[in-house]
Every structure is written in structure tokens, then in C-alpha cells.
Amino acid sequence: MTFKALRELMRDCVADRRRKRRSKDKPSEELPESTIDKEIKRLNFYRWLFCGTGGKCGLAYVLNWAVAVHLLIGFGLHLYVPSRLDEAAASAILPLASILIGLVFAWSGNAQALLQQPEIEAISNHNKGGLADWVFQYQLAVLVLLLALVVWGLTAMNVSVSSELGIRGSTVTAIERTALFGATSLALWECWSVISSAGKLLILRKFVIDRTSPSKAGNSDQVTHEHKES
Fold first, then answer.
1. Is the pTM of this model over 0.90?
2. Which of 163, 210, 155, 213 has the alpha carbon at shortest distance from 179?
3. At 220, phi and psi to the nearest 5?
4. What single-letter DSSP state applies at residue 93?
5. Contact predicate 127/1, CB 8 Å
6. Structural contact between residues 93 and 148, judged by C-beta atoms closer than 8 angstroms
7. Which of 73, 72, 71, 93 is closest to 83 using CA atoms?
């Protein structure tokens, strides 16, 4: 999420919560079954992955300009890591992936708890994809990490596409090594994205609480009124 998008979400959320606080409570209207069924169908990870929930589709968060950066990193590691892929997987990649999985699941739990807070739910009302878009992004990060772990696990068992198809050559080996190291870079990026997003949600929640609490809102209105009088 860009800085401009975050700023717009925060501004709209604060204005919306202040407006709701000042307005009188209205009785809730029952939703028709067709609307409920439509919302249930939208709450599907694979539908979000290819179609989105009002915003970008899930693949757009992975298949973007950053893929070129990950491939460049993978190519650089291919050049500077002399060991074979199965040796690298058994000695370094798989132990590192185990640590990353624990880290991602721990932060995902914190993020899921934050997403249930009323302040975050209010912010999500101004997000194009809604709350589901943020929830599915965490699931996507876990999926990318698990897929990378499975691929490296197969590599540790000396299973590769080229060997199964009987394709040999230095070019094929270079492509395989670049793709695997690039996938590792992508998994690390997704892991960091989970941690970064959880931190942003925490800061957003504190911002909304500070800007919408009655005392702060009253002081802000009073300062604005005094400034106009002067």
C-alpha cells in the first residue's frame, strides 16, 4: 500500500467515524439473501487471487515489477553460490525457511487480531478491496513461503524438472538456479511484507483512536474555532 493510499484511507476513516459519532443511531436494515450470497462468493481466496474483491487481484501483488528484481537477485546468487542446489537446500535454505515459517505465522496471528479491531474495520471500509483484500494478502504471503519450501524440499531430494525431463546443459542449470534463488528472494520479501503490514496496521489503529476520541476531537474543533476567531 502506497503512502498516498494510506493517507487517503486515514483521512476518510477519521472523517467517517466522526460523522457516525455525531449522527443518531438508525435501525439496521435486513439484507436480502441475494446480497448475502454475493458477499459469500466474494470471500474466496482463489477468486480474489485471479479477480480481486473490488481492488487489485491477488496475482498483481506478486507478478509485478519486483519479479525482475527477484530474478536479478537470483541470478547474482547463481553466480556467487558455488555449491550444488541440493547441498545448498539441505545445509542452509531449509533451516532458514523453517525459521521464516514460524516468523510469518506468528506475525500473521498478530495481524489477524489487529484486523478484528473496530478501528481497522472502519479503515477497511474505505479500501477498494475491503477487509478481505488485506486478509487474503496475508494468506498469499504464507502460500508463497510454503511453495518455496516445497520446491527447495524437492531440490534437497535431488528432484528437478530438467533431470526428470532428461534436459541437460549449463543454460538449463543456470535458469533453474536463478529461478530457485529468485523464489527464495520473493519468499523473504513476502515474509517482510507480513511484518511490515502488521506494523502499519498497529500505527493506523493508534492514529484513528487518537483522532476520533471525544477529547481529542473536541480539542481539535476548539483549536480550529479559536484560530478562525483570531
1. no
2. 155
3. -65, -45
4. I
5. no
6. no
7. 93
